From TrEMBL:
Domain of life: Bacteria
Occurrences of domain ABC transporter (ranges): 7-245
Classification via SMART domains: AAA
Keywords: ATP-binding, Cell membrane, Membrane, Nucleotide-binding, Transport
Coiled coil stretches, renumbered: none
Zinc found in the keyword field: no
Protein name as it appears in the record: ABC transporter ATP-binding protein
Species this protein is from: Rubrivivax rivuli
Length: 269
């Protein structure tokens, strides 16, 4: 087994405009074949990090290294090759509502390969089978539930056998059972396909249950802690504890700084 990370974020700083830095001097490594979860509150820069890995944006400084190759957003040929090896599941990964479940999963295969239709059929059914929805191939998107839609989007994301699968908030808006199904699927797909997975989420228990390695990220892309789920659960660091245990107050305050409550309501303290 090689020790070279599949993805390396090397001292990356990035802002959408010069007035605000979203990620500041971040370094991370994602090992091949593992599920890494990046946990963090809303707006801390998780999706931005994923976009940088996908070559959507260019870091202001630092490098993103994909399987030993520095990602260069100006190199169109490289980007095309890179994206072919990448499956991205966005938070609201839009399915084509006027197409059937089957045609949604077949879409990337028809777009990116010259495979004959008979082979596309076999691959689509295999991918749908992997997410437990082979029987739903003929349904229209309007006929499926939210949890099913998420699984169809996943089948579509793995249609081209990506080496890296990135999930943006895969558990958002799912009920507990669908959440458990989604979590187990991410783990299983990673293991059976030999892919490397990156899960971006704020659902602590689900990520702790399936990830090999967890990174805790705070505002400004600051890395609070990283380690195995067990290491983080056992951590005595107050900020890490607050994060993984979901305690409302700790070093990160629940209340935005405000005057004393009595002063705001005009009553004597
Ligand atoms: N295209 C954009 N242009 C300008 N600012 C953006 C853009 N996309 C995101 N931002 C800002 O960058 C910051 C980080 O956003 P990002 O989506 O990476 O956070 P996140 O951790 O994924 O949050 P969430 O969990 O809410 O999706 C936010 O303050 C957001 O408003």
């Amino acid at each position: 087994m090689t020790t070279t990370p599949f993805i390396e974020i090397d001292r990356v700083t990035f802002g959408y405009d010069s007035s605000r830095t979203i990620l500041k001097d971040i370094s991370l490594k994602f090992p091949r074949g593992q599920v890494t979860a990046i946990l963090g509150g809303s707006g801390c820069g998780k999706t931005t990090l994923m976009r940088l890995i996908g070559g959507v944006h260019r870091p202001d400084s630092g490098r993103v290294i994909f399987d030993g190759e520095v990602v260069d957003t100006r190199d169109r040929a490289q980007l095309y090759r890179l994206r072919r090896r990448l499956g991205m599941l966005f938070q609201f990964g839009a399915l084509f509502t006027d197409l059937s479940v089957f045609d949604n999963v077949a879409f990337p295969l028809r777009e990116h390969t010259q495979l004959p239709e008979a082979m596309i059929r076999d691959i689509v059914l295999m991918k749908l089978n992997a997410v437990g929805l082979r029987g739903a191939a003929g349904l229209r998107i309007s006929e499926v539930s939210g949890g099913m839609a998420r699984r169809i989007a996943l089948a579509r994301a793995i249609a081209l056998d990506p080496e890296l699968i990135m999930y943006d908030e895969p558990f958002a808006g799912l009920d507990l059972i669908s959440m458990g199904v989604a979590a187990k699927l991410i783990r299983t797909l990673n293991d059976v396909t030999g892919a490397t997975s990156l899960v971006i989420s704020h659902d602590v228990p689900e990520c702790m249950a399936i990830a090999d390695y967890v990174v805790l990220m705070a505002t400004g892309g600051r890395i609070v802690a990283q380690g195995t789920p067990k290491e983080l659960m056992d951590s005595m660091d107050p900020e890490t504890r607050q994060f993984v245990r979901g305690e409302p107050d700790g070093p990160v305050k629940f209340h935005y700084p405000a005057p004393e409550i009595a002063a705001d309501f005009g009553v004597a303290p």
